Amino acid sequence: MIGIVYVTYESVRNLSKSGAEAAYANALRIIDWQQSLNLWHELAIQDWALSHEPLIIASNYFYGVAYMVVTIFGLLFLYRRFPDDYPLWRNTLLIGTLLGLIGFATFPLMPPRLLDRMGDGQFFGFVDTLMSYPTLWSFETPTMQAISNQFAAMPSLHCGWAFWGMWVFLPRVRSWWAKTLAVLYPIVTTTVVVVTGNHFLLDAVGGLVIFAVGYAVARLVTRSGRRPGPAPIEPILSTP
Questions:
Q1: Which H/E stretch holds residue 101?
Q2: Residue 222 burial (CB count, 10 A)
């Protein structure tokens, strides 16, 4: 089920490509909104990170692999250790991911890393770290350009999956360090998508919103638990 939904998600996302003009206009809207909310800090965060090359390289690798590895591990963790909880959180993942398609189709968004190359000439100063520093892959490779919709930035599914991971692990792990990692996971993911120039902060908020909605919908459509109910109590009959 998860594999089918993921392939469908990737296929529909990449088919629903919009022009650079609309995506750039929406990016300017996001910047205006964040400035009015005093949240326009992406460039300052990336500028600071660029002076620490090991941090940039680590962010590139984290961006490329962590969201998939942690999500798969979370599903296996639930299925093996908490089978009663698995259907609800599996459905939350599926519904939240599919809700992301609505954002991609209705609000195409140019990520910060493309503003200077594909905008109207206004200079911002963002760096595409996946292209300029070591990493597993880059959006600029011919294969990624052919299959990836680079304007599918709102909401951030990296952040949405990270919030899902926190909700899955935090109440179910026991050690303090595991709980700390669960809380840090979405914080680090949000920092990484900003440092690498792939998302605005409001994209992360969008990821949180669609997975909160996905959880609410999953609660409505998921049966409660997989364990059989308690066996009926046989009446105790007195014998003469």
A1: helix 86-106
A2: 17
Is residue 21 within 8 A of residue 110, CB to CB? The reply is: no
- Nearest-CA neighbor of 208 among 180, 182, 194, 187? 187
Please, what is the end-to-end C-alpha distance for the chain in angstroms? 58
Residue 225 half-sphere exposure, CB side, CA atoms within 13 Å? 4
All structural domains of the chain with their residue ranges: 21-221
Q: Phi, psi at residue 200, to the nearest 5°?
A: -90, 165
Residue 42 · residue 112 · CB < 8 Å: yes
Q: Assess whether the previous peptide bond of 155 is cis (omega < 30° from 0).
A: yes
The answer for residues whose C-beta is within 8 angstroms of residue 126's C-beta and 6 or more apart is 42, 43, 46, 112, 113, 115, 116, 197
Spatial separation of the C-alpha atoms in residues 68 and 3, rounded to whole Å: 12
Weakest mean pLDDT among 108-117, 169-178, 202-211:
108-117
Distance CA 141, CA 37 (A): 36
pLDDT in tens, 210-237: 999 999 999 999 886 545 444 444 444 4
Residue showing tokens 């990737």: 10
Quote the tokens at residue 40.
């326009």
Residues 158, 63 contacting (CB under 8 angstroms): yes
